[in-house]
Amino acid sequence: MKAHIAALPPAAALAWKVPQGSGLEKVCAGAGVRLRTVEEQDLGRTVADLCGLPGAGEGREPLSPADHTPALVLWGLDRKALDAFLDGLKAAGVRIPLKAVVTDTNRAWTFAALLEELHAEHRAVQKNDK
Q1: Residue 3 lies in a domain
Q2: Structural domain that includes position 51
Q3: Averages of pLDDT over each 10 residues, the chain, 130 residues
């Protein structure tokens, strides 16, 4: 009996409010990462769905993001590739304040819920830095 193994989609980057021409496109292309711009109408979709992962849930009604701070969510990069990707962003001068990777926990969240969590974490870090 043959085992059927579903092929996973290629590495992905979900970009929220990252300006075009920022250099992100070039870094993604160089790293073999599929770039997807997340739009307002995508906020109610799950992170897994936006990454094209199998078994992605349907999501729920979108929540309004706290603000329009640019964010980047990455999926499918191992630690070495992730470090190289982040180094590439830095070398290209691409500044994105909020970054996250897809985890077993957050893959079922709507993109809006993930943005809200990223904003809350960012505010907490800023508060502690003061």
Answers
A1: no
A2: 12-129
A3: 59 94 95 94 91 74 66 96 96 95 92 90 80
